[in-house]
Amino acid sequence: MSEAVAIPHAPEGSAASEQPLPVIRLPMLDTKRELFAYEIVFQHESEDEAALMRRALATITDGALARLVRGNRTFLRLTRELLMEETDVLQHQPRFGVVLPPEAATDAPLVERLSRMAQRGCPLMLDAGDTVLEYNAAVEPLLRVVQFVRLDACKLDPATLRSRSEYLHTRGIHVIAGHVDDHDTYHRCEELPLQAIQGRFLLKPEPVEVPVLTANRLSLLRLMKALQEGNPGPVELGQIVRDDAILSYKLLGCVNSAYFALPRQLKSVQQAAIFFGATRMRNWIYTMALSGMADRPPELLRAALIRAHMCEKLAQHMAPEQREMAFTAGLFSLLDTLMEAPMDFVLWHLPLAREISSALLENKGPFALLLEQIRAWEAGDLRGGEAQPQLIRRMAAIYLEATQWADHVYAFADQQPN
Q: What is the reported pTM?
C-alpha cells in the first residue's frame, strides 16, 4: 500500500499546496461548550508581522482561511495600517472580525474607521485584559463601537471579573472570558453573563477525587482493550466491530469518501483492514469511537484528532510501525480529558505498547518529544534557535493538513445513520 493512500494529503491546488500561514485556531466556546468562534493567532517570531497579516487578508479573499475555520465566526489581529488601508475585504466577509487593543481608543481616525466597519457588519472585539472599563473615558470610544469585549480571567480577581462582566452585559456588549486555564476558573465563569469562554481548560482533565467511568466510557475502553490484545488481524478487527452497526457505518463512510480517492469501494471493516493494514485500521477505529463521544466538547475531540495526525507526520523519519504508534500516542494524549479520569487510571485498562504509555505517563521516549513539540505549537511557543523559521514553516504545513484531516474525519464521526 502506498504512503499516499495511507496518509491522505490535501487536494492539489488547495491552500495546503502553497506555503501555509503559520497560525493556529483557538476556539471560544459558548456556555454549552459548543463552538462560538475561533481566534486566529500567529506563531511568534515567524516573520514580519505586517507581512503575515497581509497574507492573512489574502487568504480571506481566496477562501483558504475560511476553510481553516470551517466558515465559522473568526477573529484576528491586524495592524493599524491594514485597518486603515485594506479592510474592505472584511466588509464582504461578515464572519471575520478584528481583535483590538485598548490603546486603539485614543486613535480618533482609527475609531472612526472602526465605526464604519461595525456599521457594515464587521465584528469587533476589544481585548481589554485587566483594563478598567467602568466609566473609563479613555476606552469609551471603543466601547461605543465594539460588539464584544474579552476580559482576562487570569489577571482579574473573581469579584472584579463578575462586576465587569455585569457592567458590560448591562450595556448590551457581549463578554468573552479569556485565559481560562483551569477548571475552577471555568466553573466560576459559568455563573457569569458571558457569551463565550476561551482558554487551556479545554485540554486539561478536571481533577477528580475518585475516578468513575460511565457505562459508555467503560464500553469504549473494552473496545480499545480488545483492539490491543492479541494484535488482531483483519478478520479479528471485523469481528470486534461487527456488532456495532453505527461505528461500522461511520468508519466505512469515512474511508470511502472522496477525500481518500480509493480505487474501489470498501464494503466491510475486514476489507478496509486488508487494504489499509490492520494497525492503521485499528487507529481508525479508535478515532471513530472517540469522536463519537457526544457528551464531550466537539473542539476537544477535534484537538485529539489534530494531535494524532500531527504526531504521525512528525514521525515520518521513524519506521512504519512507529509512525502508527505515534498516531495512537497523539490521539491518546487527551484521553484523560476525554474520559474525565486520570491518565494512569485510564491506561490501566489498556495494554498499550511501552513506548506509548511512557510518553503519556512519564513524558519519556521518542513520542514524548513529538508531543512536546505539538504542545509548544498549540501554545505558540516553539523554541528552535536558528532553525526556528524552518521549523515553523514545517509545523505550519503539518498543522494545516492535520486540521483539514481532523475536520473531515469528525464530520463522519459526528453523523448518524438515516
A: 0.90
